[in-house]
Batch of 4 targets.
Target 1
Amino acid sequence: MVLILTREDVISVLNMKECMEVVEQAFLELVNGTADLPLRIGIRPPDGLALYMPAYLRGMKALACKVVTVYKDNPSKYNLPTTIGKVLLQNPDNGDVTCIMDGGYLTAVRTGAVSGVATKYLARSENGMTAGIYGAGVQAKMQLWAMTEARNLSKAFVYDISAEAAEKFSDEMHRKLNIEIIQTTHPDDLLNADIICTASSSATPLFDGRKVKPGTHINGIGSHSPNARELDSEIIRRARFIGDSREACFSEAGDIMIPIREGAITAEHFYGELGEVIKGTKESRMNNEEITIFKSNGLAIQDAATAKLVYQKALEKGIGTKVSI
């Protein structure tokens, strides 16, 4: 029997704190060599893009593949979202498919979770810290949720090109997290924050890296192609740069690939992977004046770990629909 979990099922069992815990374990497995993580496979049908993201975590016994499609005409032609995701979870002992679940909410939470883990290890640890969020969409919400799990935040600032979106973000996240959310009118208004997150759709830098104050931690989330970046060469040059995966950063992340092409930095500027920092083989920040950057590209190990967590919690709560295939 295969358990089918809808988006509502996934939402009912998945919370940020537990997701951060399993994502942290997944990154430890990656650095310890107990994770199998092939490169994502992309296929381009005539009107869209299909991505296949497999991973296997031996320690967690999590074997999964996420299928993500991007079809820009879906809303107008089929009344469907532009991006659709499903996760297929298997039993690694016998290969049988045990669960098929919606991947939209899962992806949003696991992407926030990895930034939460990075914040835990890389940001300064002080009471009453502040966060600045570029973007006011679903992912921005998950990023702020995760940062409140990692640090005791007193308030957060949000900037979005849509004032209406920023206002909705402020209202919703204030109710959810019970912290003050301040809507700003200029990108530079966020640069006094202790922790900055870029979760926008911009293909060009969001701020002048010379203006970032010492001691800031930055989570770079939004850009995922070699010719797009949210962070300029100056802030990359000034900061200690940690990525989720060295391979992914040098094949997908314009945030570091463009400064290298420009000659602003060399490839050696890539300090290490998040898993190395978690394990302790690479130091986190040297002092409270250092600027740190975490670049997230999104790895299938995050999906596999989170899918296993969702499946286990669904079984415990007796939710979902079992079907025979």
Note: Residues 13 and 313 are 6 Å apart (CA to CA).
Target 2
Amino acid sequence: MNENESNEGGGALLSPELAEDGMLSAVAVGEATLARGAKSGSVVLLQKVLVELGASLTPDGSFGPKTHAAIVAEQAAAGLPETGVLDAATLLAIGRRLEMRRKGRLHDAMAAAVGGAPSRAAGAATVAGGPSRHDEGYFDDAAALRGPGAGPVADPDSPPPAQDRAGGKAKGPLPADRAEQLAAVRRSIGDDAPANAALERLLAAGRLHDGALLPNLATFARTPRNPALLLEAGIEPELLLGQVIRHVDNPLRVQQGAGHGTCGAGVMEYVLLRSEPAELVRIVDGITREAREVTLRSGKRLEMPRSAIARDTSGRVDLDRLFQSAIMNHASAMSWLFDYDNPEDNDTFWAAVRGNSQMAVYGFTSVYQAILGGSYASATRLSRPKDEVAALVATSAARGERVPVILEFRTYHWLSVEWLEAGKDGKPASIVLRNPWGKDEGGDKPPRVAMPEGGGRVRMKYADFIENVFGATVRG
């Protein structure tokens, strides 16, 4: 594992390809500037962003007259002093415009993936780089999205459970202490038929007979929730517990939601449900109590931001919104100063710097390790060949691990590797991934086809995976 790709530090800057650059990070916090005459890899990264924003120059690492002119143009567009020097304010302005441009592309990719096309309402207001997500008609499904404060989103049990390759085995009656714990859970969820059905499936599969899952569910059932959940969003304790049970039963229910850059947090939620569902239950129990925080295995505290409580327009069920917001709140090095704003999908320290909330690889890795424990590290194409990054993923997947990866979907997007499929020669032939959108009908950017069970699972040729993978979090 490359020493420069460890999970130390956190946060993100503008986009994943810039996130790990020390000089640009220093510029972002006002500790340095870049000006004409500079020559470095940091300048190359800056130039690539300027080219993406429309500048006519060659990313050669030399801050010359063309780079100077491009910076002046960005400063003029943002109403900043036209110095030609890259300082914190200029980098923030560039990051915001880049984010708007990429978010528009991501929406186009999402629309294409579900068979739609980008739509814009006639006369909708626009800003430099693309429309705001608040504009009418920004989403193809705008009419179906809930407004803030509306009732709970539909919570379907589709696709059906038991989609995973491994199932539990019946283990006979529960011991007396566990039978009482199960009774407490049943009393709490009451007549919630889908939750009761999911609970019975967990019992029949032997998943409640040992381990921490049932005790954690019982603790959840017996512990009061933060009153603001009910008073501000109408989230009753039994509703939230029912969602937890149904997610444990069928993790394919996890969704990132529309208009939020929470793909990394959605992947983290999904992988945790697959690998250690009892820990997911414990974490959600902690962040929805009065204190809104829980101590992770690493000793770090995970806190749910206050802004996550009210329902938003993302279309996520309450559990997804609350958990993902807590993850986003701690995906930066400065989360102790700046809270994540869920309705606006921004306002962590690094989000304020780069204008969005998408997590870079090593920021994800830091939080992922804090939650799961053990040793994890990031691997990216910034310092490794793409086939080497893919090989690290394949090695982990061959061990039966679900691996979080970033792929290029017109912009960078987190998914999780489900399993690896080998050809007749024993070499990787295809790879199955799970998209946190929760629905992916396939597409050509990157090339992929939908799996029959749906739920966001797609199959990709291994050669295409190599071409499109940007980075991954792997066991170190």
Note: The mean pLDDT is 80.
Target 3
Amino acid sequence: MSATDGVAPFRAVVIGGSGQIGGWLLRVLAERGHAAVGTYASTPFPGLHALDASHREQAAAWVREQHPDVVFYPAGFTWVDGCERDPERAYAANLHEPLNLARAAAELGARFVYFSTDYVFDGHDGPYDEHALPHPLSVYGKAKLEAEQALERELGPRALVARTSWVFGPERQGKNFAYQLARTLSAGQELVCPSDQISSPSYGPDVARAAVLLAEAGESGLIHVVGPEVVDRVTFARRIATALGLDPDLIKGIPTASLAQGAPRPLSGGLLSPRLDAWHPGLMKSLDEALADFQARLRDPLLKGELKPIL
């Protein structure tokens, strides 16, 4: 049994264990007494198994060999502009490959947890709750929405879709927005941010913990897993900079239309999380609490060597 609250342990597979959510999923699963194995596609880490999800028959066979009770899929092609330029890859990584593994999981009676995005909305009147009608603007958003719909159609109550947004925090690879910001500002360079993009900053360790707790509870369907605040990108950036002791005056806001980004973005976006809040109120940290925890984890000697330093 779990050492924390009597939850029966299960066996999990994390596809994309080298990523920021995947890495924290593996840690939370271990802390809560579950057996878990993680995979990587291109960036190896100790203990992870190489898995190319584009080799669909082999990938499905490997998942079956693990005999999981739950498969988490935080992997995918999340570079929004790259998805716009390469729709085939976007649909393969965000729809066809996870659906293939979800079917393999379903054959075993396992559940499948898929991570989606607020980019399924057009950003005209956000933030959005789970009942809002999606209307994606980009290839990335369309592929994610089609995956949500396919999982619901084919797996029914064995599928859980966790939508999140603007995920940040300590991670193995140091790729998320907080790391990019720190590298730029610490070099004394100006960071340009869209002044009119609004969304929900979500702390990676909290997103992972929420997903594991939801899996433990047998929750299914669609649930928004996001931080409690909705802010614009410039405010988000300046609060990160201040927390990290960097100069927020180096952050410059300009309209999205002036950035010449390859894919359209939802502007008034963000997510509301009434299902999560009703089930587990206060689970997701405020932005200030998350930033304090971010720094504490980076200083934790038990995590040294596992997390990329912020500077």
Note: The chain has ten helices and 13 strands.
Target 4
Amino acid sequence: MKHRNTFSFGCAIVLVMASTLISSHPTQAGDTPTVIDIGSRRELFVDRFLVEKLAGATLKLHAPQLAPAVSPRRPHGHYATVLRNGGKFQFYYRGDKDPKVTWKTHGIEAYHDGEVTLYAESNDAIQWKTPKLGLFEHASFPAGNIVSMDEFLVNHNFTPFIDTKPGVPANEKYKALGGLAFQPHQKDVRTKRGPGGLKAYVSPDGIHWKKLREEAVVPEAWGKYFDSQNYAFWSPSEQCYVCYFRRFIKGYRGIARTTSKDFVNWTQFVEMRANLPNEHLYTPCTQPYYRAPHIYIALPTRFMVKRGAATDILLMSTRGGNRFDREFTQSFIRPGIGSQGWANRANYAAIGIHQTSPAEMSLFLTGGRRYTLRIDGFVSVNAPLAGGQLVTKLLKFTGDKLEINYSTSAAGQVLVEIQDADGKPIPGFTLADCKPIYGDHIARTVEWKAETDVSSLAGKSIRLHFEMSDADLFSLRFHDKKMSQ
């Protein structure tokens, strides 16, 4: 039997997505079954949220493909962030005034005082330029692309995001968290330099930053020790700010979560406990997926202490609350051929998954590496040539078209049937009525006898039944024809 790991633990900050569930799971005969209201949201198959039954089909993890590197190559270190603001991409990454100064050779004060946050811009997320900003000057960075300097501990992992909360002031359009927690043996430095923790920053443009307040907004005591990339974002589905941060859990590097309404006051953290036994997860790298922001994609770094600190990248997902889904436990991005990828802590994914061509999106890794996937292409419902079926749970939707992201072989196809709440095919929308779907499209509207309008079924409880052969189904959505792609 296929091994599946899903972790769920009760806590005070779990937010029930009332717009998603419109009734409770049945506990006895006669109870009303659960109906999932997906509205016009795009749904991916990174978890089994929509899956009622798979027969002859499986969920398949797709491996990102190594693509030409970004130019010039960056980041060289860890904890990078790639943002997109309209047609402009913004790259934030760590630099060192003197790379020869390390915490081992010169102590943590000199090491962290020597860290800066660097900035680059691009129109395509592949070719980058370093603008001379004129904000900070240092001989090691003649391009003048420093956006933060002399912020003790903060520049180790300064991680910004674009705040999409409605009504956010223009001068706080960008927000960021950065900082570390002192370890017990560093108490003398803490006494001298003040407490650590995650400190908050705001900016109108992602270039000119100011501290939101002097004190840390996420307290030092939570961190143990925040020495990772700790990313926050505004969640439209949860209607709050969410932060996933690194924390030691029972001796292993793991992930915790906290939420806030105002970016200053944060709820008591919850340990996500996503680790497998004896597993270190070095970075949370958890972010809303840009085409389905109610789904958070996590690309954590798995850290192998006893294998020379080798690292690789995993794929997890969550829909909020205190639960990560680990449908897949195998590596998402392996270290690769050659010694470079197997070096100490050589593989970290940057925050940021962005479309870089009409059919592809890019992921960015340490050393300027770039990997690509088809859009929505993390996981598919996969059927062999012999055929397979997917039946969804009960759904209700809004809109008048059903759009799918799929791929078939030359011999394969996909058929779609809409069933009523009792599992009976709805006349006009049966498998026999469906126009065979084959090819490879990011967005294809399903037709039944040349009819695409499903608005007569909007708001009703239905199931989708897919019959597939040599095919992959990556995502689906109901939408109005006039809605943007």
Note: Confidence is low (pLDDT under 50) at residues 1-29.
